[in-house]
Every structure is written in C-alpha cells, then in structure tokens.
C-alpha cells in the first residue's frame, strides 16, 4: 500500500505514474479520502477511478455473490413464528445506487459536498441495486421484519420513500433516518443505538446488509452481517 504512494509526492514523473497505477484497487478499497485528495496524484486517480468504476465495470459480481449468500442464509434461519425475526438494510450503496451522482463527481475523488449530494438525493432518482432488490424481495417473502436503517436525514424521509418505491422496494416495516440531534454522531454509534432499540423491542436481528463497516459493527450486531462493496467512499 505505502509502496504505491512512496514516490507519488516527488512529482509527476513516470515512476510516480507507475506507482499510482500499480494498485488502484487497493487505493480505493483501503485508503481514506486523505489519499484521494492528494493534489499530486488526484487527477491520475480520477482517471483510474473512471476506468475501474464505470457502470460496466462496477463490481456487480460481488453484489450478486452477496445477494446469493445472504439469501441462502436467510432461508436457513429457524423462525419462531412470533414476527420478531428481523433483517436490516442500509440504503445508499446497499439498496440504492448513487453511482450516477459519483460519475459526475470524480467517483469519490472530489471532497464530499453535502449540499450537492443533498440536491441529488432530493431528485429521488437513485436506481435500485438489482442484486439487493432480489435479496430484499426474498427476505420479505420469507417473512422477516425489514428495517431500513440509513444515515440520511429525517428531512429526506418523503423523497427517500418515493425513491425506494419507484425503484421497486416496498413493504418494509420501519424506515429509520437520522433525527436532527443525531446528525453529528458517528455512524457506528448511531446505527448501534438503533439496533439496541430493536433488540430491546424483542427483535432478533438475523441479518444486516450494508456497504460500510459502520453499518455492521458495534453493539447489537446481527447474527450474520453482509458487507457490500463500496470502492468510492468510507464512513466511520
Ligand atoms: Mg450505505
């Protein structure tokens, strides 16, 4: 990892080009935005990002695997029949794809602009991630209680509901968004607290699907967690 960047700060010579080009996948899967903001390598990374994460090459296969494996697990759970077996889905980059936004914003290379992203969210046109829609429907059909737990703001509830329905998601039990006084909590804490409330309510969290580790780790973790790929950004 460090080797990839060992010469990148020395200038735009051929060696730095090779160094950056040698491990772009590691850059996007393991590094934080601090690397992506590098003035020296930023433009090169952006060009690599476009090649790697264009709609054609985006890792749909990994999502297929996630959907299939999660579906198999969901089918193996012994239901008690009391309606307390639950499955949690994150929304962004789990059920809905913001790839159209990131195509226009450097695939995560640009510094995140909350205002611009909010405008995109408020259009309500994020497409479904097809393998996730398949899993979602399977989980519903099996009889799980479905909780949608998102870092989106409460003020985006209506547009989020409309976007989800238009993308094919229906019949969830509860949609949980961040209240105004929760805006500054780390995602791991915010989502843990919401899972804690579910467990206190008697729910057994059987599965949890999310694209960030902060969707999955913390307290009241699910019996089985399913991590989707997200090479574009990281949320602690
Ligand atoms: Mg997400």
Structure description:
InterPro entries: Acid_phosphat_B-like (IPR005519), HAD-like_sf (IPR036412), HAD_sf (IPR023214). The chain is α/β, with parallel strands linked by helices. The radius of gyration is 19 Å and the shape is globular. β2 (145-153), α10 (157-167) and β3 (174-178) form a beta-alpha-beta unit. Strands 3-2-1-4-5 form a 5-stranded parallel beta sheet, with helices on both faces. It contains 12 helices and 5 strands. It binds magnesium ion. The site of magnesium ion has 7 residues, from loops.
Order of helices and strands: HHHHHHEHHHEHEHEHE
Low-confidence stretches: 1-43
Distance between the termini: 20 Å
Strands, count:
5
Structural category: alpha/beta
The CATH topology of the largest domain is: Rossmann fold
Architecture (CATH level 2) name of the largest domain: 3-Layer(aba) Sandwich
- Radius of gyration over alpha carbons? 19 Å
Percent range of helical residues? 40-55%
Give the ligands present. magnesium ion
Strand content: 5-15%
> How many structural domains does the protein architecture include?
2
Main sheet record: 5 strands, parallel
- Shape type: globular
According to CATH, the homologous superfamily of the largest domain is HAD superfamily/HAD-like
Mean pLDDT: 80
Keywords: Signal
Pfam families: Acid_phosphat_B (PF03767)
Organism: Eruca vesicaria subsp. sativa
Protein name: Acid phosphatase
């Amino acid at each position: 990892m460090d080797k990839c960047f060992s010469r990148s700060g020395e200038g735009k010579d051929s060696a730095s080009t090779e160094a950056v080009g040698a491990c772009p996948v590691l850059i996007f899967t393991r590094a934080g935005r601090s690397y992506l903001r590098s003035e020296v390598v930023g433009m090169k990374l952006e060009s690599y990002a476009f090649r790697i994460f264009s709609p054609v090459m985006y890792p749909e296969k990994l999502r297929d695997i996630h959907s299939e494996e999660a579906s198999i697990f969901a089918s193996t759970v012994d239901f008690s029949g009391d309606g307390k077996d639950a499955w949690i889905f994150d929304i962004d980059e789990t059920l809905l794809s913001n790839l159209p936004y990131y195509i226009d914003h450097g695939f995560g290379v640009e510094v995140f602009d909350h205002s611009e992203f909010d405008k995109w969210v408020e259009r309500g046109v994020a497409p479904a991630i097809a393998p996730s829609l398949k899993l979602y429907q399977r989980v519903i059909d099996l009889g799980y209680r479905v909780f949608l737990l998102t870092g989106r703001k409460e003020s985006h509830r209506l547009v989020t509901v409309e976007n989800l329905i238009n993308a094919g998601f229906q019949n969830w039990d509860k949609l949980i968004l961040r209240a105004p006084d929760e805006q500054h909590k780390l995602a791991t804490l915010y989502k843990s607290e919401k899972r804690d409330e579910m467990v206190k309510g008697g729910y057994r969290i059987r599965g949890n699907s999310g694209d960030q580790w902060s969707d999955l780790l913390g307290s009241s973790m699910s019996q089985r967690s399913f991590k989707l790929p997200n090479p574009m950004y990281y949320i602690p």
